[in-house]
Amino acid sequence: MMLQISSDDDAKKYLDVLLLPHFEVYNNPHWVSRIVDRVLPPHVREFYTTHSMFAAMYATADLLELKSGRIYVSATICRCAAEAAEHPEHEREERLATALEKQATTWMAHMLWPFAVQAYMDIERYRYRHQTWTPTTPKTAADEARYKAHRFRESILARDSYKCCFTGFIHKCAPEVVLKDATRTITVEVARIFRHEVATSHQGSTDAQKSLDITLKVLGDYCEIADSLHTIVNDTDDPQNAFSLGLEPQDDFNDFSWCLKATETPDRYEVCYMSDNERYRGYRSIHTHITFVDHSTEFSTSSDGRQDVPGTPKRLLRAVPNPELLRMHCALAHVMHLSGATKLFRALCISWGKTQYRSGAAAHIAPTGAAFMAHVVDEDPFLMMELRASLTAALSPP
Question: Positive or negative CA dihedral for 38, 40, 41, 47?
Fold first, then answer.
């Protein structure tokens, strides 16, 4: 097969090599087969493949009009083809299939895993819900941090008029001027688009930082978001990275069950359910669209009677969610579901106990691309889980 660098539209023809029967091992890599054979029942065959990953990247780029993202995917395929063309002709097809599998796995590890796994970590632990309080005079660094978190939360709630942006229901602790017209009240919290845990989990080692650099590079190239990403990674408590949601919609947003697709109107987004409207099983909004508006100027004080957050610039208090960050979340949601990665991650991270869900083989693997490569791709996470269980049982007192 003669491999040549093609145009953007023709790059996809190189993906056909993955569908050849004798290269099935590259389309359905060993690490994927381990998960499928261990967890998924025989009748379930809609799972991730190398080909489905590339198809999902293209489909999402087209849906969200990511022109640079589509070019990035095509250029990546052409680079794989160019590398394969450097080898003897009888090796080129297999070299191409190998390179494509490696690239798709890199996207799984560095682009998707750090975000997807957050929904499954510590699933056995009771989920405490943002128990914040405001000390009158912070006396320790911990008090000051909690005070800052509380004030950040109050500023976002005020900006969003103390309403869940998804349902329109009022926060049960909203100011009386808001509560007097409420037909239903719920607990409303602050959801972050770029999760704080993704940034902090990459701290502490050179390898983790390198892994984060790869993640940010892929997201920047594909989602056209580089500048916003670096700003938010350094401060996830930026109002542009947050909006108000009830507890159930927040859970579904965090695990990419729904997302927001930009419209031609600034700050107005279409609600998209994953994997599609018919198969979505989560909490639904009564609205088809969500429009973000800054209401912070309507509240001279927060619900606890305090003035605007000390030390926080007024311009940030008025900032609504960043469209680039929401585009990133929307792109991740679509790629995860269209590629089959969501089912694969769920099979890795959740197992069914006698009465409830519990953590699966990979739920406690660090949310970094490097950790995924080391503990899911390069080794059997189920075997490691069984080994740990055996050691725990052997070391436990009788």
Answer: negative
Angstrom CA distances, 253 to 67, 116, 150, stand at 25, 11, 22
**H or E element: which one contains 328?**
helix 323-339
Q: If you write DSSP's letter for every residue of 38-63 in order, what string do you get?
A: HHS-TT------HHHHHHHHHHHHHH
Residue 105 identity: T
The span from the first CA to the last CA of the chain, in angstroms, equals 64
**pTM as predicted:** 0.87
Pairwise CA distance, residues 254 & 192, whole Å: 8
Report, as ranges of residue numbers, the positions in the chain whose pLDDT lies below 70.
1-9, 40-46, 121-142, 300-318, 351-359, 363, 384-398
Q: What is the per-residue pLDDT for 110?
A: 95
Find, among 235, 248, 222, the residue nearest to 329 by Cα. Answer: 222
User: How many CA within 13 A on the CB side of residue 199?
Assistant: 15
C-beta separation of 35 from 348 below 8 A:
yes
Angle between helices 341-349 and 323-339 (to 10 degrees): 80
Give the span between the Cα atoms of 187 and 333, in whole angstroms: 25
pLDDT of residue 214: 93
CB 311 within 8 A of CB 321: no
DSSP letter for 11, please. Answer: G
Among candidate residues 176, 212, 217, the one with its CA nearest the CA of residue 76: 217
d(CA 307, CA 314): 12
d(CA 221, CA 56): 16
**Residue whose token pair is 């990953």:** 53
Backbone angles phi, psi at 171, to 5 degrees: -65, 135
What pLDDT was estimated at residue 282? 81
Nearest to 356 by CA among 125, 76, 170: 125
Residue written as token pair 């023709």: 10
Give pLDDT, residue 302: 44
Amino acid at 388: R
Distance, in Å, from the CA atom of 16 to the CA atom of 23, rounded to the nearest integer, reads: 10
Closest CA to 151 of 50, 237, 271: 237
